[in-house]
Amino acid sequence: MTTLVNLVVLLGMFFVIPVGLRLVDGPARSGLTRTARYWPVAALPGAVALWLPRGAPATALAACYALATVALAVQAPVRLARTRSLAPAEVATLTALVAPAVAGLALVAERSGYRLFGFDLDILALTVPHFHFAGFTAALVAGLVCRAAPGRPAARTAAALSVPVGTAMVLAGYFVDDWAQLAGAVVLTTGMWLVGLLTWRDLRPAAPDRTTGGLLAVSAVTLVATMLLALWWALGRAAGFPHPTLTWMAATHGLGNALGFALCSLLAWRRTKELHP
After folding, report:
1. Total structural domains within the chain
2. Of 182, 27, 190, nearest to 94 (Cα)?
3. How far is 131 from 217, CA to CA, in rounded Å?
4. Which residues cross the membrane (predicted)?
C-alpha cells in the first residue's frame, strides 16, 4: 500500500495542485499563478520525504513542504478579504486553498512517526492523498462546476457547499465517532454525485472538443463507483458490517478518484481554459 499511496501523493504534489491553482480566477489570480509556477520546487522535498525511512531527515523535508502548504492556505483569507464573498463557489475555492495544509501537517507527523491526535500512522499516511484530492481537487472542481454549469441553481449551490462541508465532516468524524464520519461521507458523496451529474448533463455536451468531453465523461462516471465505495467503507465501520480494508480502498477508491476523477477533471478544465481563455 505504501508504494501506491506515495505514487498517488506524487501526482497530487506535482500535477494536481499546480494545475488546479492555474484554474482559479478572480482576486489574487496572479499570485496563485506564480505559486503554481514554483510549486514543483516546493513539492520536491516533500516528495523525497515520502521515500525516506521515518526519522529526522524525512521530517525536515516534509516540514519544508508543509510550510509551502501553509503559505498557500494563507492566501485563502487574503482572497476572502478582497472578495468579501461567501458565495457557494467561493466557499469551495477557499476550501481548496486551505486543504493542502492538512495534508502537509499529516505528512510531517507521519514521517516523524508521531501519532498526531492519537491517529495510527496508516491513517495519517492516507490523510495526505485524501486532502490533495478530496480536499483540494474535489472542492476546486465543485467551485468550477458551480460557476460554469448553466441553470440548476439549487444543484450548483448544493454541490459547491456539500463538498467542502462533507470533507470537513469526514475530518471531524475522526475526532468524534464512526457514525459522525458516516454522516460526513453521506454529505461528501452527495456533493460529489451532484458534481458528476452537472458535469455529465450540462458541461460534457458543451465541451469545446471530443477529447475534453470524453475527459469530463470519465470524471463524472468514475464518481459513481468511487463514492459508493466510500459509503460502503464508512457504513461498515459504523455498523460493524464487512467492509473493504484500507489497502483495498487505496487501490480502488483512492486510485479511481486520483486518476479517473481528479486527473481527468483537471485535464478537461485545463483544455477548456486553453481553448476558451
Report:
1. 1
2. 27
3. 23
4. 6-24, 58-78, 90-109, 129-146, 158-176, 182-200, 212-234, 246-269
